[in-house]
Amino acid sequence: MASHSRRQFLLASSSGVLATLAGCSALGSQNDDTTTPTATDKEITTTTTTNGGTTTTTSSTQKTTTATPEEPMGSPGGQSGEHWHGQLFFEVNGERINFEQSKYEELDEKFHFASDGDQYKWHNEQDTVTLQYALNTLPDIEYQHEGQAHIITFRGTTYQSSDSDTSITTMRGETSIDPWIYTLRDGDVITVRIDTDATTKNETSTM
């Protein structure tokens, strides 16, 4: 009779161990989106008490998972340390400014011109700048905007694109751009053109 009770106890204990193992296995399979699972071996040991003393029963090894946080990806860096160049053409009624003059050179560390044989070549370093910032570093030129309208003051005269007799265009190559939001890039060829009549200018002089 004692032998029969002992068999029932061992069977019940074994069922409990299997249920426990099944439950651990189910939990170990759950991962969130921000962790990387790492599999390790874990030995499960159960203890059974009998009338004659303590009997230790060791189950087979089980794989468990440990969550390891993933390292965040780095964000891209800025333009710091680069030195970019391009060309700027600024025209008023067909006359183009020669920026290779001392009053236009080395005025701002982020955007400036230099005596290097190209009167339209700009230099950009330290940080990226908008075209609006670049224009406002230059003497004789002040750029602002109201809504979508361009307003440029050049040598004391203010031009507004909202005026019926005034046209102001700002281009990057063949593409129209907005100076207050467009950020200069290496190699950009920028044209700012002011015309106060409907006549098409076929020739451009330098001033």
From TrEMBL:
Q: Which PROSITE patterns match?
A: PROKAR_LIPOPROTEIN, TAT
Task: Spell out the residue ranges making up region: Disordered.
Answer: 26-84
Q: Output the superkingdom of the source species.
A: Archaea
User: What segments bear the compositional bias annotation Low complexity?
Assistant: 30-70
Name this polypeptide is given: Uncharacterized protein
Q: Which organism is it from?
A: Haloarcula rubra
